[in-house]
Structures are given as C-alpha cells and as structure tokens.
Amino acid sequence: MSDDEPSDYEMNLFNFYSIVYEKMKIMLKESFELDEGQLRIPLSDFDEVLRECLINCLAHADYVQAYPSIKIEVFDGWFHFLNPGKMLVSLQQFRTGGDSRPRNEVIMKMFRWLGASERQGYGGPLIYTITASSGVHTPEVYTDIEKTDLRIWNIDFADSYPELEDEAKDILRVILKSHIAISVSKIREEIGLSDYKVRKWLEILDEKKLVQRVGSGPATKYAVRETSDEKITQLQIALDNLKTKE
After folding, report:
1. If phi over 0 gives left and psi between -120 and 50 gives alpha, with beta otherwise, what is residue 214?
2. Prediction pTM value
3. How many angstroms separate the CA atoms of 105 and 210, rounded?
4. Does the pLDDT at position 235 exceed 50?
5. Rounded CA separation 115/111 (Å)
C-alpha cells in the first residue's frame, strides 16, 4: 500500500497508519497459521517489530520531497518499508540507539502519546534485538539522499535464501544452531549426508558468502559469516544482558 493509492477513507496520516497496521497484522496472523513450521519470531514480538518499522517509516519521511511515495509491501516471508528522504542518523546509530533525530517531531510525539512507539531513540535496537535473538535474517537498511529502504524477515535465516537447495539450508541451520565454528564431520553426523555432499554444499555456501572457513587443513571448521550488522546487533544484545543482570 502506498500513500497515493485511491481509497474510500480520508487518507490523513493517522488513518494511513491504522489501515496499514491492521492489514499487516491480518497478513502476519495468516502467515503464522499457514506456515507455522518456518516462523521463528513469536507473533506478539514480531507485531511489535512491524509497528516500530511502520512508525519509523512515517515519522522520518521527507514529506516536502514526497518522492518516492511511502510504500509498505508484504511478501512471502518478509516486509518492505520505503519512505522518501535520507535517515538523519547513521546506520550504526540506528542499530545501537540512544540518538533520536526524527525528521517530523510532531508526528513522533503523536505516536508516543498513542503508546505505539518505543521510547525515543531505541526503535532501531528493538528491531535488531528481537530479530537477532530469533534466528532470522538480519534486517537490511539502505538509505541515500532520496530514500530509506528497510526490509524485515519473519522466517528463519536459511529460508530467507529461497534459491538454496534443502540440503544446503539444512547445513546452514546446523552451523547457525551451533553458535561456534563446526567441523565437516560434525555437520555430517547431524544431517546424515555424505562427506562429499557436505563439502560440496559448503563450497557453494562459501561462494555465496553465507559461511566462512575457520582454520585450515584437517582442523578446518565453518561458521556463519557475520556481517557488520550482525556483529553490532550481537554486541547490543550482550550489553542489554549485562544491564539486566545488574
């Protein structure tokens, strides 16, 4: 849905938020009912992630520029949020939080008064922390002078790469579940594939930059390749855990 679509409603900002949010919740509930085996994020948590993404999209849009139009799209396993205007904080600040610079402060205040928005400056960490702790694909954010583009997945990490064969996905899940680098023999024991097949799939996963080799020779092990996004997110989760213990 975009802000320039024909509608029976008076399309002010609040109505747009209400209509889109309700549509997303309906689609989300249907996807959980139809495809429960693949979904990893609890429904209530993912609902919170979607709400924060939608509010960020609306509160940070450049309505003077007005191009491209605000657009919210739902695909099989992921959600897409697009708004005009470059983010006013860096991507690292968005991930780690603490520095809020909404382009439209009045709009952000409205959502806070409604109780819909996370405390100021911490919407980004909420999005990254919930998705990181659930084993799904890391959210992707792109921003330039023209637009900000945010993509959120609600299926597990392996399923977010539909081009992969099932055996490759199984290997990726085993590596991800181990949390540490794992050997070929251990992977083979977990999924029952031949040594040749495991090594062949690992080569493909390595070429796609989804896994990385650790060590060399007989001691070679494999781990999920960490992006800078994932490293920052894991650091944020660790810091949050320390604060909780204190």
Report:
1. beta
2. 0.74
3. 39
4. no
5. 6
